[in-house]
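thread: overnight batch results

M.L. [08:02]
morning all. the overnight job finished for the chain we discussed friday. pasting input first so we're all looking at the same thing
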Amino acid sequence: MEQGPTVTEAAIKRLARSKSYDHGENHYDQGAVIDITHRGDTLRGEVEGSQYEPYQVRIELDDTGIVETTCSCPYDHGGICKHRVTVLLTYVRDPDSIDQRPSVSELVADADPADLREVILDLVEHHPELAGRVETRLETGQGDDASVRPRISTAIRFASTSSTYSDHQMGSQNTLTIRMPQSKPM
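M.L. [08:03]
and the structure it wrote out:
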């Protein structure tokens, strides 16, 4: 997988105040980057900082370079923060250290529909705030398999209102079991 758009240190310097750039370069030199993943047009990184939890950095790229950057730190002094500088310097100086992953759209393009159903149910079970979005997409007909929509909607409603589920650890594979209510005959 190729790295993606060209980003230069000069472009990073233009986005940051000189103090943020210098601090970001120091963070880079000290190995403060815990992890960076490049998936599609997005870089996501974790950078050690002054808080217990690492700061979460997201960089959106396109053919022209850097489009948007965000960081979970409270920095608000103009330009990008040192954590974003650190991630971008890693992208420029040490691209081999970045985990190159396919975009989600590439992952699901040829996926088995049954596997996608399991992924959706697992995501909704662990992130109930997604239930409404999934339900809306299915109700508006933006899904491909009309026969599965009622079952997934029922599972989502059940999962978001009940705690009757369990996770089982089987080797390195996680299996999610959801006990569905019995259907009433029509």
